[in-house]
Fold this protein.
Amino acid sequence: MGDEGQGQLKSIADLARIAGVSVSTVSRALTGKGALNQGTRERIQALADRHGFRLNVAAQNLRLGRTGAIAVLMPLGHARGQQLSDPFFLTMLGHLADALTDRGYDLLLSRVLPDRDDWLDSFIRTGRTDGVIIIGQSDQGAALTRAAAHYRPLVVWGEDASGADPLTQGPLTVGTDNVAGGRLAAAHLLARGCANFAFFGDIGVPEFAARHAGFAAALPPTQRAAMAIAPGPVTPDASLHAARAFFAAGNRPDGIFAASDVMAISLMTTAQEQGLRVPQDMAVIGFDDIALAQMARPALTTVRQDIGAGAQHLADLLFRRMAGEDTQSVRIAPELIVRESA
């Protein structure tokens, strides 16, 4: 088809007509979403520039009854100081951004400080996105369960608590088998000959509580009863402060399982300040396997959760829910990564 005139076009249909392609092809070319021959994409973009045409994505989505965006929310009920720069969250966010972009969706990111019980219901009512992914339950289990009862395109990264109350249908979840991860950590420390244990983490958080439960269950009864449980803040500065307080109180375990790698690295740093050698005097195991784990000194032994696979499962389950499918929660097997710290 010819390229008549240089004036502005009124609609995407006009651009499709002079380009000799379908409206959907023009849409894919101008949004950069979906499969399209690169030559065709560049030709249509050049035509749009020549005619001063800009695609009104908001109007297009309104006609389609969609927003073209997925919300990724991080509720901070128990740890209000946690930042989006947290290593675990940044890794998860990167994988999620790739998974959503591949499906032609934008990502709307929000760090939420819950100030009322219906904060999630209120967000859903705004209609700003076509679906919601929650990263971490924090202490917001009741809010998540309430929203899940009436809003299907909702998926949560975290501990599957559906079996806790058979009368309550909790949200759809994707997460690591945290209990199994705790067992892996205990078995490794026992195999090293450790006899005096400590768990470092806030057991009010569902994921951390499950890691503690698995760890404790795998210890012999006497050592389980004597195990110290220390609060484990999630931010580096706060976890360093908590670790220093832990050692200042005279605690000297020879085997520590920390609920996150950030906590574990803080413990190793503080132990070395106290003149303790890791792993000779104290073996330390973390959880996550963030990039910093293998760069720590000594390199951190940790329970790895596959964050990339988790992000793909979150996106897959969400879009299947958006398509009206029935789906089940996914639990990912953990893996012990043995390095120098234990």
User: Anything to note?
Assistant: The mean pLDDT is 86. The chain has three domains: 12-64, 69-176+307-333, 178-304. The first helix runs from residue 12 to 19.
